[in-house]
Amino acid sequence: MVAAEEANIESGAGVAVATMEEEKRRLRMRTRDAAYGAAVRAACAAAAAVSMSMMVTAEESAELDLYGFRLPVSSKWSYSNSFVFLVGMTAATTAYSLLQLLLTMLGLLKKSKVTTNTFPSRNMAWLTFTLDQAFAYMMVSAGSAASGVTNLNRTGIRHSRLPDFCKPLRGFCDRTAIAISFAFLSCVLLAASAILDVLCLLNHHYRY
Predict the structure, then answer these.
(1) Is the dihedral of CA 177, 183, 187, 193 positive or negative?
(2) Element at 105 (helix H, strand E)
(3) Are strands 59-66 and 69-76 parallel, antiparallel or unpaired?
(4) Is 54 exposed, middle or buried (0-12, 13-18, 19+ CB in 10 A)?
(5) 57 φ, ψ to 5°?
(6) Alpha-carbon span 201 to 120, nearest angstrom
(7) Are 96 and 131 in contact, with CB atoms under 8 Å apart?
(8) Cβ neighbourhood burial of 207 (10 Å; 0-12, 13-18, 19+)
(9) For burial by CB atoms within 10 Å, which of 30, 101, 124, 193 has the most?
């Protein structure tokens, strides 16, 4: 009987050790996923911030040579609703990414049970996945609208004699092009965050 009790104790200890090892493995996986998520969030916030800063500093004045006449021209990002929309979306994306990064870093520092974005529940993980997609779609919309205006500035209007405004306003056009490029990069990073959210939902188990 004593031998049976000792065997039960050893069996229970073995189960406890196995359970502890499994918990450690899951914690390492969660920590790894959170680290990947933090890196993507930081990159997304940086890309959106660069896009916003390049756009809000896009302003230039010059003279346009039109059939021998020197006409003063000036351009500023606030003159175009599409550029204003892009600035607003990049500002919102920067704030959103920084908030998610902060939550992720707090979760890593506390070594708590975290998802990719440090949300402990499945509902919160799905909410983050939805927000990532929503911001990505809105950034695509803002970037596409802004690129249409930039392309018009570079090529003029077909079948008309509207000149290429980017020749005298080269600096302005270059800044807007860089801003749009980083805006699309932030779209890609938001999509990557959404993919990480899905992988996290598939790899981890939640009580609710």
Answers:
(1) positive
(2) helix 81-110
(3) antiparallel
(4) buried
(5) -100, 5
(6) 11
(7) yes
(8) exposed
(9) 193
Structure tokens, 165: 């405004």
Tokens of 73: 């021209």
CA distances to 46, 78, 175, 180, 183 from 189, in Å? 11, 26, 21, 14, 10
The mean predicted confidence, pLDDT, of the chain is 77
Cα separation values, 186 from 109, 129, 192, Å: 26, 15, 10
Comparing 174 with 29, the larger pLDDT belongs to 174
Q: Give the pLDDT score at 160.
A: 43
pTM of the model: 0.75
User: 91: closest CA among 103, 105, 77?
Assistant: 77
Tokens standing for residue 57: 């500093």
The contacts of residue 167 (CB under 8 Å, 6+ apart) are: 64
